[in-house]
Amino acid sequence: VVAAHATAPDADQLRRPSREDCIAQRTRANTPQQALTLLNDPTFVEAARVWAGRLMAIQGDDAQRIEGLSQQALAARSAAGGERGIARHAEPRLEVNSRQAPPKPPSCSKSASAAAASGDPNDLGAWTTVCRVILNLHETITRY
Amino acid sequence: MAGGPSQFESFDWKPELKRLHDKPFPDSLTKGQQLAQLQNSPLIARGSFTDFQKYGQSGQEISNLFPKIAGIADDLCIVRSMTTEQINHDPAQAFMNSGSILKGRPSMGSWLIYGLGAETENLPGYIVLMSKGEGAQPVSNRQWGSGFLPSKFQGILFQSKGDAVHYVGNPDGVCQSTQRLVVEEVQRLNGMLNERRQEYQDPEIATRIAQYEMAFRMQSSIPELTHFQDEPKHVLDAYGIKEAGDGSFASNCLLARRLAERGVRFIQLYHRAWDHHGDLDKAMPRSAQETDQASAALVKDLKERGMLDDTLVIWGGEFGRTPMGQGSGRDHHINAFSLWMAGGGIKPG
To answer: A102: distance to nearest CA of chain B, Å?
Structure first.
């Protein structure tokens, strides 16, 4: 349901058209509030968490999971090898982080899906963090 | 003062018009002129329904609808010779903001932070606040757009009701160090994207990087900014704030002072009201009442804090209203209207 006159904050911040009229060009949206929405809105955090759960279901090593991640978010738009490299680059630092202070998965328990609930919570936390990074990239949220 | 406040009920005393009240408007003054909704209707003069008095040592003439603004008469520079090219709200606001009705031109605030930079790293340099009264017309977000300048220089609209900015807190269960790590990683990867796409010269990537840095800083600066509890009661009372962050013009005025204190270069407060085509004698006093006290309090507050010398306050709309009546109201008028300024080195009184 789209309520044109009671837009959700994320619709506002992403300048989503109201669907009342056809528009040829969307207004540019590149604001700190948009960054805060993508970083902190439970909708996007939950999306990262569910995505992390799916990655953990992949049988294979971390490199293969990273590969799956870049295929879905980045490489789907451009299959250049360098893009997969970028995704791999993100991983070592996050691994260090998960060793030093294992991040717990963000607790959006209200809608947490079953897929996100299984597996080692520390792994889920680490992968959720990786997924949050990917979901916030300019390349992910901008059409190239 | 979005909508076009009437100069005849605010800052432009016209005794002759009052004498002509209800009589046919002299043809010699209106012949060939562009009118909005009054085009081709019989034109009847309408005198001000308010009384004007001289205030302060300077004896500025101000309507009795604005008693608090009248109280700072000696700090004001009233400009009664404003004109504009545009007779409808949106293009007239665009003309005021960007000097052009064409889309894609940077607004004044964008030029200012493009040219002068911002004095704070923890808040955007150009912030827009919105409130609403009677006779409210929509205000498009292109009014604070950066046009062809990089969108880093656009105005940032804060919420006036509730939280000024949504989602300033980390997600539940995410500690500050993990949040910092996420932002740093986003920055690093966006930086690599920027390098790879050098040939396209896409300023939006640099803007994205800057906005994420700003977003992270705003996670701590916004709660402190909007914490009105540290304002003494007499300050809240001076502005006439019933409840902090209630979406009122008064609350926005105090937020504006707090933004100015923190080094925000350009702050715009839209009070959407004033489009009084009808019921002028009821709606105008209400709109005046919503803005009078807080406008005066803002100027006085800035003055007491020694900030008025280098802060320019401008109070005005996108156009004025006709000396001819339109039913129970007044139509849009572009050939003469009033605004006032205070501070910023202008000559008051």
So the answer is: 10
